[in-house]
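User: Fold both of these, please.

Assistant: Here is the first one.
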Amino acid sequence: MPSRPNENRLLTLMALGEIEAFNEVRFNDVGELLDDLHRRRMEDQYDLKLADRSMREMRRGGVKAIPIDMMIESIDRKIFMTNVLSI
């Protein structure tokens, strides 16, 4: 009687394949994958730290934070106007 495939192993292999395809990188072993994930996590933490520091500096200077949805609308308007004017 054939054994059932290990579901966790299949999920791990599928996730590894997706990560490799997304990053266009081929990992030789799980250690390389974990190193890459750790490096990315550290980069994300550093980016958040810089953003937090920038917000504190802006608040000290009396600058009010702009809500992100307003910022996105402003950028969308600028892109739209650029496209309209280039036609």
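And the second sequence with its predicted structure:
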Amino acid sequence: MAALWRALPAACTASVLHSKSFCRADSEKDKWSPRITCFGEAMLRYVPDPHGGEDSPFAAKWLRSVGGAELNITVALSRLGWGGRSRWVSVVPQGVLGDDFLHILGKAYPDEKGSGNLDLVRREAGDVGIYHVWPAQHKIWFQRHRSVFGLMNPSWFSRAFWRQVLSDGASSSMPQVLHVTGITPLISVNTRAAWDHALEEAWAIKEDSILGRKLVVTMDLNHRPALGSWKDLWQMAEPHLQTLDLVVFSIGDVIQVGEVFGENFAADFKALKEESPGRAGAAGLDTLVSGIPELYNGRTTTLCAAKIYAKEELRGQVAELPWQSHQHCSDLQGKRPSAW
């Protein structure tokens, strides 16, 4: 999300690399800071205890945590000083399981409760999705078919719901931000409908001359092959491209989108990897994608090749986070969207 951070006023640009408060004094935060709303599923994550001496499906001890791409954004921003202004919209089970799940989530936030961050989480009867990770074997297994998020009723997140959430605080000096990923629409028909509702209403708000300047919409395509094909995901995302201010692509996405428009980026990527490692290579990938004028038909969407493929550049550098490659994002019209 560095592209978003870069766009904030000087008052809000205390160095995140040194864990300083992101904005001004608490009394001025609401005036100067945007509110980001992230929509998506979180799951229980199990990994073999590294001290248990076993990394297999039959490990005797497992470590439990919570994982979710969209949730991670709210936790990270909250730790960087955004507090309760980074909100997560989702569905969590009712009962003891859901209580335990929310307790684990709350502990991830600076106040150890998630006050403000978790206020938009809905509680319904059902189960939570889980996944197991075997790091040494580079294996991961998801079990989410019966998750309460996947079985949601799309009407819970209707366009009216999103209008209320995204218009909240419209009098603020800074924009609202809606962040989604390409994971959600591939989980189930129901989650896709709710995801569509969010983006459709975001477009309607942008069309509103009063509110439109104050809404920024971002998407990390984040294709997960286990959920569906890249082609399926692209067909879901393409109708919403006009709504997006920022699209984050992985290297694989860059190659795939090139194929959609008749470009062979695989060879270009190989050359970039050899000649321009790290962030310089990421900037090169951004340039490749921004060279497809048909992709956004003149819209002011920013395209980002998000993944730094020369990971050795990051070793021992805690502050050098992968998302910092966004600073190389190329805007097709050479200017930021009006909301920034």
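The two ends are 13 Å apart (CA to CA).
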